[in-house]
Design goal:
This protein has about 250 residues and is an alpha+beta fold. It folds into 2 domains: about 120 residues, 4'-phosphopantetheinyl transferase domain (Ribosomal Protein L22, Chain A, Alpha-Beta Complex); about 100 residues, no CATH class. About 35% of the residues lie in helices and about 25% in strands. The protein contains 9 helices and 12 strands. The strands form 3 sheets. Strands 7, 8, 9, 10, 11 and 12 form a 6-stranded antiparallel beta sheet that branches. A 4-stranded antiparallel beta sheet has the order 1-2-6-5, covered by helices on one side. Strands 3-4 form a two-stranded antiparallel sheet. Helix 2 runs parallel beside helix 4 and helix 7 crosses helix 8. The longest helix has 21 residues. One of its GO terms (molecular function) is holo-[acyl-carrier-protein] synthase activity.
Length: about 250
């Protein structure tokens, strides 16, 4: 897979060009894009074609990851696991030169142990891997293949109003699912009821846009912006930063 350049949203602040080039030269990582999505947050997207041995060659701190390598996974899942960590280290080099190793907290959220204040989220689906990193705090991202499964499972994770808004559109069902996954990762709190506590406002589907989501907890309510975009050939990418409005 070849490097295809950086993409940016209008509100994004571009990273210094030299930092992208120097990091790519350092690890020879064939990325699809590195996108600044705020003053500090960086989103990496990788179309995965590499073999398991090639991915190991790109990964630093190999003894650390060998001890955590998920034995028994099929080849695709193993490649996704490795690629997520390679890409996380690649993005870390864009914002911090400190050596660090990736861990998971009790809720499964990934984090760099040496940089506890840095927000990190990893997602993969099929041939795509996405990583979002922000030194300022928690983030969430998710990438999903559009498929009918989301519509079949909709009664488990969508309210009646959300299902009515999705209608019979498989893309909207997948986007609803992905957006709720992103919001769930942003807060990393077990036990949340997706159809009741993570609520999305109705939306018109475009190639890229912003959704409004609400987190409804026992003693607090907050509103969040969830960004999305279509990814070829048939994927949905969503992400959210720690910015929120308390209601």
């Amino acid at each position: 897979m070849s490097w295809r350049g950086r993409s940016t949203r209008c509100a994004a602040v571009p990273l210094p060009h030299y930092s992208i080039i120097s990091s790519l030269h350092l690890v020879k990582l064939p990325l699809h894009s590195i996108t600044p999505v705020s003053q500090t947050a960086v989103l990496g997207l990788w179309q995965l074609t590499e073999t398991i041995p090639a991915l190991w060659d790109l990964l630093p701190a190999q003894p650390h990851y060998l001890a955590r390598y998920p034995d028994g996974r099929d080849e695709l899942r193993a490649r996704q696991w490795l690629a997520g960590r390679v890409l996380a280290h690649q993005l870390l080099r864009e914002v911090n030169d400190a050596p660090a190793t990736l861990h998971n907290d009790p809720n499964g959220r990934p984090y760099f142990a040496e940089l506890p204040g840095l927000g990190l989220s990893i997602s993969h689906s099929g041939e795509w891997v996405a990583v979002l990193l922000d030194p300022r705090g928690a983030v969430g991202t998710d990438i999903e293949l559009v498929r009918t499964k989301a519509q079949q499972l909709a009664p488990r994770f969508l309210s009646e109003a959300e299902r009515a808004d999705a209608g019979d559109d498989a893309v909207k069902y997948s986007l609803y699912w992905s957006a709720k996954e992103t919001l769930y990762k942003l807060h990393s709190r077990r036990g949340l009821v997706l159809k009741e506590q993570l609520v999305l406002e109705p939306f018109g589907l475009r190639e890229a846009g912003v959704l409004t989501g609400h987190l409804l907890l026992e003693n607090s309510r907050s509103q969040h912006q969830i960004y999305y975009q279509r990814v070829p050939p048939n994927y949905i990418l969503t992400y959210a930063l720690s910015e929120m409005v308390n209601l």
